[in-house]
Amino acid sequence: MLSNKILVGLAAVLSLGMMSVFTVSETEKAIKFKFGEIVESDYKPGLHFKMPFINNVKKFDARLLTLDSSPERFLTAEKKNVIVDSFVKWRIGDVNTFYTSVAGDIYQANVRLDQIIKDAFRSEFSKRDIKQLVSTDRSAVREALIANTTKIAATLGIEIIDVQVKRIDLPSEVSQSVYRRMEAERARVAREFRSQGSEAAERVRANADKQKEIILANAFRDAEVIKGQGDATASDIYAKAYGQDTEFYAFYRSMAAYKKTFTKNSANIMVMEPDSDFFKYFKKMK
Description:
Layout: H1 2-19, E1 21-24, E2 28-34, E3 37-40, E4 46-49, E5 55-61, E6 65-68, E7 72-75, E8 81-92, H2 95-102, H3 106-125, H4 130-136, H5 138-154, E9 158-169, H6 172-244, H7 246-261, H8 280-284
Antiparallel strand pairs: 1-4, 2-3, 2-5, 6-8, 7-8, 8-9
Helix pairs in contact: 3-5, 4-5, 6-7
């Protein structure tokens, strides 16, 4: 009987000891209550103590959580509807605030956070047109969303890590209008490029024509100079040759004239006096 009492006592002590300790892992946040009132929450990972039957402990997931929102319609600055599919990465920041604001319920936290994010989307999208949202301002929108929701989410004990837009779609009634406008814009840019190309081509052709005229004028000038120099040189040679032997020079010039005049197939008719100087050397050959 005594041994049984000892065993019961040891079991009770052991049970009481186990009820006096609790562990907090690295992926958890914990709150200790005293008769339903929060007394401590800043627990580091490890082994901690509590008073049995007086204190109770609740643990919450401290890991990164994802809120994958359902696609929602928002109005742009052009008053056009866009369908946005997004998600939010968040985690519990202040566990006390998280417990008191949403009762520590992850589902309730997601509902409240979803409304905060959609309000921020609505505000940012109303400031931008579709082109900015789709192509140029994605990173700016993300930064603005994080900045605008961080303080509000903190009132729920939530820390916003990231907000990302997965997809931005246009409703079918808007798509055709946007595509037509984009097509018109591309056509305008193409016309502008063609106009600029035509203008550049005209400038190139005009410059080429100008350079052509300049080159031809310079070539004609140089040719005339060279021709004049050649004529002057030839005249000088003729003059020197004539001065050295007048009779031979006259004879040579006459022979050249005969050769040019009396060609084999020549049908020229010449009418002149028999005693003309042209036949001077014909008479001498008799």
